[in-house]
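Lab notebook, design round three. We kept the backbone fixed and only want residue identities now. Task for the bench partner: fill in a sequence for the structure below.
Input structure tokens:
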């Protein structure tokens, strides 16, 4: 957990860190020169020098720790998902509204270089429109990496969903979350739009390389994510007469969107020891397609300017509840489930 507090200047500085394990806490603190260290989250929230927290805890803790931080008067950046229940998402949205504090769900894919490439095409009108808590997790409870870019491309909102479960995970995991599905497949209807999206997600017992990806199909151009990590994107361009020309395209980096001081972090991280940075998120480039410095920049910019960055609390709730309610739909045999009004702008 990382906390940031304002300096006397307009910049922000790293103020304190929190970690339950003392050895890990000291390892990080010593490496980055952070003197203020907490093993208790409650004590950290009582620190008047801490104005904002970045929550990186296990998924089941996200909602409770976010709610506690907002009640303590702290701005919040939280890794995905926002929560695992619709009720907790609403509590967070209500608290943000009541307190005037800022919240941002740190969804990596909507700042990954592949997303920024597709967003740039769209904006130019070239396209139209495993810790202990993991086993048994319903695929759609961790769907923000899929839902986020799908909605984020047009800044759209999910209005309702229909989802089917397919296949069965190992029976020993059924009791963890009451979910048997190996794959969940969802259709999302965009609000006030002729667009819809097809989304599928698997976490366990599927022989498939893990990838966070999406495809976009437009009238003039379509972009498909490679089936194998590190392969180039495939861009289809409509030509006359009626046929499409596919070509492989190496996705450019978007470090130029960032202040010069942090541009290097889109391609290299700050973590890892002598063995290097072997986790997939770092081999993708400084964390999930180079997104980490973009996320930090957007959160800091939001606190300094007072203008919400994407996704704010309501947008985060719409993205997260899409997955939660999709799983409910699967349990009901694909029944259409509408997103609550409070998740819509």
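Proposed sequence:
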């Amino acid at each position: 957990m990382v906390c940031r507090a304002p300096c006397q200047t307009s910049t922000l500085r790293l103020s304190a860190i929190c970690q339950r394990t003392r050895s890990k806490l000291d390892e990080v603190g010593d490496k980055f020169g952070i003197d203020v260290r907490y093993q208790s989250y409650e004590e950290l929230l009582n620190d008047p020098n801490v104005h904002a927290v970045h929550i990186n805890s296990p998924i089941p803790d996200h909602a409770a720790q976010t709610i506690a931080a907002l009640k303590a008067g702290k701005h919040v950046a939280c890794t995905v998902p926002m929560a695992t229940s619709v009720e907790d998402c609403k509590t967070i949205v209500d608290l943000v509204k009541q307190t005037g504090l800022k919240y941002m769900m740190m969804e990596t894919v909507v700042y990954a270089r592949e997303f920024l490439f597709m967003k740039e095409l769209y904006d130019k009108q070239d396209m139209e429109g495993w810790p202990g808590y993991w086993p048994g997790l319903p695929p759609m409870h961790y769907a923000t990496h899929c839902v986020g870019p799908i909605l984020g491309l047009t800044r759209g909102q999910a209005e309702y969903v229909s989802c089917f479960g397919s296949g069965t995970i190992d029976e020993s995991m059924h009791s963890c979350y009451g979910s048997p599905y190996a794959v969940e497949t969802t259709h999302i209807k965009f609000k006030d739009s002729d667009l819809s999206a097809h989304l599928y997600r698997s976490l366990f017992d599927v022989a498939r390389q893990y990838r966070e990806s999406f495809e976009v199909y437009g009238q003039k151009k379509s972009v498909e994510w490679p089936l194998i990590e590190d392969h180039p994107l495939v861009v289809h361009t409509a030509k006359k007469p009626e046929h499409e020309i596919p070509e492989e395209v190496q996705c450019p980096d978007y470090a130029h969107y960032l202040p010069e001081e942090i541009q290097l972090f889109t391609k290299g991280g700050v973590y890892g020891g002598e063995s290097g940075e072997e986790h997939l998120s770092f081999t993708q480039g400084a964390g999930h397609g180079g997104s980490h410095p973009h996320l930090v920049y957007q959160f800091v910019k939001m606190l300094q300017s007072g203008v919400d960055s994407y996704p704010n609390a309501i947008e985060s709730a719409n993205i997260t509840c899409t997955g939660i309610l999709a799983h409910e739909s699967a349990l009901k045999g694909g029944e259409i489930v509408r997103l609550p009004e409070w998740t819509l702008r």
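Keep this in mind before ordering anything: The first strand starts at residue 2 and ends at 6.
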